[in-house]
Design brief:
Layout lengths: L1 E4 L5 H13 L16 E4 L10 H4 L1 E5 L6 E5 H7 L1 H12 L6 H6 L1 E3 L5
Parallel strand pairs: 1-2, 2-5
Antiparallel strand pairs: 3-4
Helix pairs in contact: 1-4, 3-4
Length: 115
């Protein structure tokens, strides 16, 4: 199991490291169709950073399915309320969209504190 400290790390660069480790791309025995990566634990996720104007400009959307119920939440609010969800979404977006994606995400553990 690999532990990564997210304190003062940039969100996107951290997500790339985590996604590559989950897939096992850093190993010589990498196979695209196999689970060859290692479980990853990320700590201090509430202290990670973003660059530029993303806190106000990047917006996450969700829809309830009813007319007119499109909800928009800026990244700044989500970083305060659910920074673990933000990192999980970033890592999920960097993994291939196939049957192994759910298994890779199960190997990802995110903690907001030092524990």
């Amino acid at each position: 199991m690999i532990t990564i400290d997210a304190q003062n790390q940039i969100l996107g660069r951290l997500a790339v490291k985590v996604a590559n480790t989950l897939r096992g791309k850093d190993k010589p025995s990498f196979r695209a169709h196999k689970l060859s990566g290692e479980p990853v634990t990320v700590v201090n996720v509430n202290k990670m950073r973003v660059t530029g104007n993303k806190l106000a400009g990047k917006i996450y959307y969700r829809h309830s399915g009813y007319l007119g119920h499109l909800k928009a939440t800026p990244l700044g609010e989500l970083m305060v309320k659910k920074p673990d969800w933000v990192l999980r979404q970033a890592v999920a977006g960097m993994l291939p969209k196939n049957r192994l994606r759910a298994q890779w995400l199960k190997q990802l553990t995110i903690k907001q504190g030092d524990s």
